[in-house]
Design a protein that fits this description.
homodimer, alpha+beta, Arc Repressor Mutant, subunit A, 3-stranded antiparallel sheet, 3 strands, DNA-binding
DNA sequence: ATAATTTAGTTAATATTATTAACCTAATTA
DNA sequence: TAATTAGGTTAATAATATTAACTAAATTAT
């Protein structure tokens, strides 16, 4: 009846990260931090989990002399996010 | 930007319970157990939390000689569920 | 020059939440 | 009367999320 909600995406912060990334080509860590309102520590951990799952790709580089972390969503991430959306909508169908 | 998701509702099982209850006047514990696929223990705990929040009302009675637990959603529960639905949809808007 | 502050994170420890496993009471069936 | 079923509850455990402390290098102030 009720399909399982992908537990990796059923987390406010990870879902917010995916939500930002699905609408944009590539973003910096600090941009995500601002958009989601998360602390750097929590964001770092949750992004690590999304990368481990293959949902996002994290690329470390430099902006001038400072290190910057950029990231983007993967095809597999897009698919998972769409599936999650479909499933959670089924929980809301009686509205 | 991203509003918080009510943590009481952002739980697969509690959301499923609310989803069932919003579409029906009153149900028995065992019906909910079957619909959600939850174990009795977990369901009992999560329903307790929903009741504590005032989102559902639990009524204990008897069906013949056996105890039965029935429950229904409250107005406050309907409101919270609708708000949750609105907020989570905002996370999915870029699809 | 060097001390304090800022940028950009990571990681260990802690707090919170969810789930299971064991348990309880009473009724029913073998 | 012994085992099983109905209908749960609760203590213990497992899983998750969040914070707080820390690292390293660059920049600004004294």
């Amino acid at each position: 009846m009720y399909k399982d909600l992908n537990p990796l995406l059923h987390s406010q912060l990870r879902l917010a990260v995916m939500s930002v990334l699905i609408g944009i080509e590539e973003v910096e860590f600090t941009f995500l931090k601002e958009k989601t309102g998360a602390t750097a520590g929590n964001l770092s951990l949750q992004m690590g989990k999304l990368e481990e799952a293959g949902y996002i790709k994290i690329i470390k580089g430099f902006k001038g002399k400072y290190p910057v972390t950029k990231c983007h969503i993967t095809e597999s991430g897009k698919k998972a996010f769409c599936e999650y959306a479909t499933v959670i909508k089924s929980y809301l169908q009686h509205l």
